[in-house]
Amino acid sequence: MDYLDLVRNRHSVRKFKDLKIQEDKKNKIKEKVRSLNEESGLNFQVFFDEPKCFKSKIFTYGSFKNANNYISLVGEKSTDLGKKIGYFGQDLLLFLQDLGLNTCWVGLTHGKSMAKINKNEKELCLIAFAYGDERGKIHKSKDDDDLSNIKEFYNEKNSIILEFCKLAPTALNQQKFYLEFKEDGTYKLIRKKGPYTKVDFGIIKYHLKLAEKYWEEKNER
Ligand SMILES: Cc1cc2nc3c(=O)[nH]c(=O)nc-3n(C[C@H](O)[C@H](O)[C@H](O)COP(=O)(O)O)c2cc1C
Q1: CA 129, CA 40: separation in Å to the nearest integer?
Q2: C-beta of 12 in contact with ligand 1 (< 6 A)
């Protein structure tokens, strides 16, 4: 799979077609949710053909059309929950994208989900998904210098690593992160403070994993 194409083609979509997802795709999604829960210990829950959660018209920013499928991102309360949900949630979101579906992370602009949340658990976000009525568009990005010290350590690999990070979705498109490249070829992702930045951090970490895989495969070709 070309991971760079996958992340380049992903944009948040909030208007969907009134089309049901085929049974074979639903089964693949259920299986992916099951295996991610097994790997992570999280309690993600998928709901198909459930129109109530995104029905509200009260939001001017972040309102949805035909958002009848979603995954509730639930896990046991802990200081790391945001990061974990971001990482495994983005794995799931890109899986949906690869199945030809469109998606959107939703922290705030949704109604009550159908998820069963135990006392020791928390629902941090949802992922809305279906066939898009549009493809979305590339988000504005901060300057490379605001997001990293790439100027000091410019090379092809580092520029790819930074591109994967810049393409990651972040809450309110805030991009509150800094990528510090080092002399020995390694780098460190630093989280800045703000709402949902732990989830954003986990999402970017997942993009970094894909960036490394992409770079490895590119050099094997
Ligand atoms: C943690 C998180 C929470 C988000 N919450 C919402 C939300 O409540 N409503 C909404 O419409 N979009 C939400 N988004 C989507 C962002 O606005 C979107 O990812 C960002 O503007 C970048 O655009 P892109 O996804 O098209 O690249 C959220 C994204 C993330 C990562």
Answers
A1: 22
A2: yes
Nearest Cα to 70, choosing from 43, 44, 108, 39? 44
CA 79 to chain centre: 19
Ligand 1 centroid distance, CA of 203 (Å): 12
Ligand 1 center to residue 14 CA distance, Å? Answer: 10
Phi, psi values for residue 176, rounded to 5°: -90, 70
**Start-to-end Cα distance in the chain:** 13
For the residues 141-148, what does the mean pLDDT come to?
98
Ligand 1 atom at minimum distance from 124 CA: 1
Residue 212, token pair as written in the block: 């490394």
Which of 176, 49, 169 is closest to 106 using CA atoms?
Answer: 169
Q: With a 6 A CB cut-off, is 194 part of the ligand 1 pocket?
A: no
Predicted confidence (pLDDT) per residue in 47-62, tens digit: 999 999 998 777 777 7
Q: Can you tell me the distance from the alpha carbon of 96 to that of 202, in angstroms, rounded to the nearest whole number?
A: 18
**pLDDT for residue 180 is more than 90:** yes
Q: What is the pLDDT of residue 178?
A: 98
Rounded distance, CA 153 to CA 170, Å?
A: 25
pTM of this structure = 0.98
Q: How far is the CA of 11 from the centre of ligand 1 (A)?
A: 9
